[in-house]
Amino acid sequence: MGAGQILVDEDQIRRTLEQWQASNAALGSSLGDDDEGMGDLDVSAGDEDMGAGGDSGVDAKGDDTPVVKFVNKVLVDAIRRGASDIHFEPYEDDYRVRLRIDGLLKNVAKAPVKLNQRIAARLKVMSQLDIAEKRVPQDGRIKLNLSKTKQIDFRVSTLPTLFGEKVVLRILDGSAAKLGIEKLGYEADQQKLFLEAIHKPYGMVLVTGPTGSGKTVSLYTALGILNDETRNISTAEDPVEIRLPGVNQVQQNNKRGMTFAAALRSFLRQDPDIIMVGEIRDLETAEIAIKAAQTGHMVLSTLHTNDAPQTIARLMNMGIAPYNITSSVTLVIAQRLARRLCNNCKRKSTLPEHALLAEGFTPAQIAAGIELYEAVGCDECTEGYKGRTGIYQVMPMTDEIGAIVLEGGNAMQIAEAAQSIGIRDLRQSALVKAAHGVTSLAEINRVTKD
């Protein structure tokens, strides 16, 4: 079919151009004119299967259109502010961008609704997704080179909604895995138990907690400590979030038969020293992981449970025999993340003794002295908090706890046994953080109080 001609009213063309220019102007001003950090910006796409690592050929410096500049500024701003996720969200009369900072979402920018498809298309081009497919979710990956030495990966997820495609980017900053255990917030006795457990020649260390509680960082920290040329380390992950030199990382792919269980079976034929499996989700995976822990391998993994005693109960509910649990599991860590108070503006607060007791402080803690602080907010932090710290329950498989497990005890009985030998639960560990002025009572109530 040849090209055709149509007649268009001159005023209509003018109005369309004016609308386009107005949208671009609004977009350009939404994040200001600060281009700091944009000079060395370069973007390429990553392969979600960890194999090809192909390059999309997209150069963020080579395109100065308002949509490209807007997206690039959002990404750079998110990294500067320490965000974990970026949400690009279309609505009927609004288009907003939110960042998840220290666990909470915050509005950071708006864009004209008419540009929602162009913004989604730009993000899909950057992550090598099909820009024509808008009816089904898609997943991809972006590599962002901030400089010659600084690279950040993003995991990209699109979702068709009523008013357009929502796009969420998870920021995968490899530096998080190099923080070191001393930066994670363990108390001295908890850190000692953690290090002793992972340095054993065999056994299983389980990390538990809800999504976004820092389990991945805890596992990667353990791998970083153990990773040297004398050990063969293999991991099965869904997805591979941070790439670790010297570690054999396997991306789960159910469509191709690469399940956690299949990966574990293969690992056992690969002369492993240390195995990490992203999550124990079913009986098959649990049985293979326990067999590995019982046959001379150190196994690290996660479960989605509320605390350490419930993790043991979950394994029993899956169908794992109690004697297999006590002979393989060496340590269970439950964790949460709480926002740190800003040292620049935090303010002392006082509570009467009866209120402290009601919060859960012991008479001994009160007698020793408790210095509580509250959030204020300043130019440095905005809302009184800056960064996050871990809150942990670190429960080794002691003789006392093992005896309860062998008797088929439930989570409550295991928790009572743990308390009897001085193992702090999450709430008690959180109160220690508040008593030391690391975080506020309001914050620990948000993350630990039922």
From TrEMBL:
The keyword Nuclease does not apply. SUPFAM superfamilies: P-loop containing nucleoside triphosphate hydrolases. Keywords: ATP-binding, Nucleotide-binding. The keyword Nucleotide-binding applies. Gene3D superfamilies: 3.30.450.90, P-loop containing nucleotide triphosphate hydrolases. GO terms for cellular component: plasma membrane. It comes from the Bacteria. Residues 32-50 have a biased composition (Acidic residues). InterPro entries: ATPase_typ4_pilus-assembl_PilB, P-loop_NTPase, T2SS/T4SS_dom. Residues 268-282 form the Bacterial type II secretion system protein E domain. One of its GO terms (molecular function) is ATP hydrolysis activity. Pfam families: T2SSE (PF00437). Residues 27-60 are annotated as: Disordered. One of its GO terms (biological process) is pilus assembly. Belongs to the GSP E family. NCBIfam families: type_IV_pilB (TIGR02538). This is Type IV pilus assembly protein PilB. It comes from Xanthomonas arboricola.
